Amino acid sequence: MAQLLAGGTAVREPGLLQIAGLIAARELRLAVRHWDQVAQPLIFFVVVTTLFPLAISPSLRELRNISPGVVWVAAMLASLLSLESLFRPDVEDGTIEQWALSGQPLPLMLLSKTVTHWLLAGLPLVIMAPVVGTALGMPMSVWPVLAGSLALGTGCLSLLGGIGAALTVAVRRGSVLLALLVLPLEMPVLIFGARAVDLAMHGEAVAGPLNLLAAVLLLCLALAPFAMSAAMRISIE
Amino acid sequence: MWLWFYKLASPPYAYAVAGKLRPWLLWSAIALMIVAAYGGLVIAPPDYQQKDAFRIIYVHVPAATMSLSVYVVLAVAAGIGVIWRIKLAHAVAAACAPIGAWFTVLALATGSIWGKPMWGTWWEWDPRLTSELIQLFLYLGYMALRSSFDDTQRADRASAILAIVGVVNVPVVKYSVIWWNSLHQGPSISKLGAPSITSDMLWPLLTMMLAFMLYFAAVLCDRIRSEILKRERNASWLSSVMSTRGAEA
Lengths: 237, 249
Hints:
Helix content of chain A is about 80%, strand content about 0%. Chain A has eight helices and no strands. Chain A has helices at about 15-35, 35-55, 60-90, 95-100, 105-135, 145-170, 175-200, 205-235. In chain A, α3 packs parallel to α6 (about 145-170), α3 (about 60-90) runs antiparallel to α7 (about 175-200) and α7 (about 175-200) packs antiparallel against α8. Chain B has one domain (about 15-245): Four Helix Bundle (Hemerythrin (Met), subunit A). Chain B has nine helices and no strands. Classes of the chains: A mainly alpha, B mainly alpha.
């Protein structure tokens, strides 16, 4: 009965998938209207990788040895940079408070927001990485492993980072704190990811680290939404 | 059955209990440390390969073990605080963090002092060392998050979530020796069946571990008491405790 409006039309409670879809659509629409902000982490990624040849040596032979690590560290920093905008604008204008009050599952809503965020911040890095890698002397045969490890890895980074972002969103000047909290948690991801690319460059089997990355991703996917929502409820109270 | 648990969660009771336990824990820790140091430095034979340099394990191994177990204590206390909303559990978690961070620093420092003659470098980017360093960063992050909130209750709950998330890292640290097959020697005490260390070397180590645990408990009692003082500074029970003590003195 509560679902009947005054006019008598039945209003269906939105299903879980519908909620996730609505949030994803909203995020994508916002991103299209501010596409320049979305591009910033990607530009940062390219700029940071440019620093390494300048600092170390322009010789491709030397750069090739460190290229897996360089690409991975740059991707990690770019993902960290993009986390700053994951929740902050929506917490400041009260959107997330409305979500928390709406009676719909907050973990699902935040998960949907984070996944969309990954589409906008993580996926461009995955697509850009082979180009950057080649510029650092990576052979073309490594591309699938590089893109695959980054696809799994940036997902982990977005989810782990989402927990940190939710914790620090109410803190003044929280971005340094965010880095301090999130980077130690993300280090295993970096280890597995860079190792997979390194193994691929030496022509060895890469299934081991990739499987571990996938396991970390599944673990994050299962648990991070609940940690994010608990943290968010503390931040917005 | 749970009565003692609820009783312990009340700050006045916990304040009194921690005060009573502290001297017992501290003195037994000191006594055991002296015994273990004598056993480790005098009685134990020199290692056939490392000579006397191995003796630093009597500080290194207990400190490294404590750096992990203190974190587990911290996370469990934080979890109890979140689930049952017990403020004292949060105080315990807050008290654990600096102690654990110092144990981690001690483990890293002794490890690097030992590494210089043995491996020839102060620092080796070995996964085991690195994950111990990550452990230190986790402690630092936890303390940084806690200090960035003005409101103690929000700081409690926010840092509790971080502690619980971070506890995932402890098994990674623990099993990294096996996963990465590194320079750091594998565990030699807990090998089932035959430990690869003689009993003359082993008993001082185990005694020292116990002494470190007792020492941790003693320092924890101290820190819990000061946390309680800080949090309950406006409570009436505290002023009555203080005034009776003033009358005694």
